[in-house]
Amino acid sequence: FSQMCRVSAPYCKVSNFNFVSDKDGIVLTNGTAAGASTCCFTTGTIRSGTGDGIRIEGVNTNENEFIGVDVRSNTTGYDIMSGAADTRFIGGSNTGSATALSDAGTGTLITDVSGLRTSGEFEQTVAIDSTGVKNIIFPHGMVFTPNVKSVALTLSRDTNVGDWSSGFLWVSGTDATNVYAQLRVLTASAAVGATVKVIAKIKAKAAQ
């Protein structure tokens, strides 16, 4: 195909495709229709140059799925607009676009898409030889702001000491660049320079 694929009718399935366009690649819209679009695209490639690779438009454009679709060299790789819901991207890739993801929809799930990081494990070293609240910053390297609820924190021994104690360990906030956490040290270790590892596991835009 050498032009945009625009789908407005519900319930469609497209597989083994190659879309090349100087505008948009695939645009899904449900117009004023009620209910879900429910389209499934599997095993294909989209190159649109100056447009969006995949754009999901409008209210009721819901439950669309892309499996093993490679989106390359677009202005925006995935453009999920306000009103769209429960869009799923599974496998494939999203590379070379000026903006990989713009997501104003709800319930978007992205799993195992090469070039679009949605999960990771990060660690920072925190001093435990003094009491007080320790502020911790984890640069996450994602192209969106992960939800606080998508972050899980754990402690791991670093210095081999057991003479310290902690209070809360929680996520204090997230933004487009970092995850912020705090650890309260109640009892300091007597070992000067003692530290603990704080590990943040992020699983964003994925089924929890």
How would you characterize this protein structure?
By secondary structure, the protein is mostly beta strands. The chain contains no helices and 17 strands. It has strands at residues 5-7, 12-20, 26-29, 39-47, 52-57, 65-72, 76-80, 88-90, 93-95, 99-103, 109-111, 119-127, 132-139, 151-157, 165-174, 178-187, 195-203. The strands form 4 sheets. Strands 2, 4, 6, 8, 9 and 11 form a 6-stranded parallel sheet that branches. The protein is elongated.
List keywords for this structure.
single chain, 208 residues, mainly beta, six-stranded parallel β-sheet, five-stranded parallel β-sheet
Topology, please?
Elements: E1 5-7, E2 12-20, E3 26-29, E4 39-47, E5 52-57, E6 65-72, E7 76-80, E8 88-90, E9 93-95, E10 99-103, E11 109-111, E12 119-127, E13 132-139, E14 151-157, E15 165-174, E16 178-187, E17 195-203
Parallel strand pairs: 1-3, 2-4, 3-5, 4-6, 5-7, 6-8, 6-9, 7-10, 8-11
Antiparallel strand pairs: 12-17, 13-16, 14-17, 15-16
Structural class: mainly beta
- Beta-strand fraction estimate: over 45%
Number of helical runs? 0
- Order of helical and strand elements: EEEEEEEEEEEEEEEEE
Distance between the termini: 37 Å
Residues in helices, as a percent range: under 10%
Number of strands: 17
The largest pleated sheet is described as: 6 strands, parallel
What is the radius of gyration computed over CA atoms, rounded to a whole number of angstroms? 22 Å
Average residue-wise pLDDT:
88
Segments where pLDDT lies below 50 for 5+ residues?
Answer: 32-36
Net shape: elongated
Quaternary structure state of the chains depicted: single chain
